[in-house]
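User: Second chain of the day. Same drill as before.
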Amino acid sequence: MSLEQEIKQSKFRNERHKSIVNIVYTYNWIMDHTKSFLDSEDITPQQFNILRILRGSYPQPLSTLQIRERMLDKMSDTSRIVDRLILKGYATKKICNKDKRLVDVSITDKGKKILEKLDERSDEMEAVMAELSDADLKALNKLLDKVRKSY
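Assistant: Same format as last time:
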């Protein structure tokens, strides 16, 4: 369905305006699908993002500042999300040996297992892009990179 049909708006100021609205609408559409996918494991997209960051750095722990720098959603309250992951047993934290003002955060085996379980179902999550060919996806990625360079 076209953007115009989805949001019931037929006129835009120009193609730039329509593109911005389309990107925002599509982001929210993808996030709704992502949230539904992650609900099966009772984790949020931000928790999923942090777990993937921690798995990527494993066995090296990361400070909450390093995690925040790598997060997709820079506005997230990293410390609060890490605390929730700790309560679920997916992460641990301890005082940093080098700088007592920082904490080191690491993924646990339970955290790695939840990611492995979700990895097995990655086709479901990526299905939102099923209508696009590999060439389309490469072009889309190139265009999105170009958007971020232009500002």
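The longest helix spans residues 15-39.

User: Great, on to the next one.
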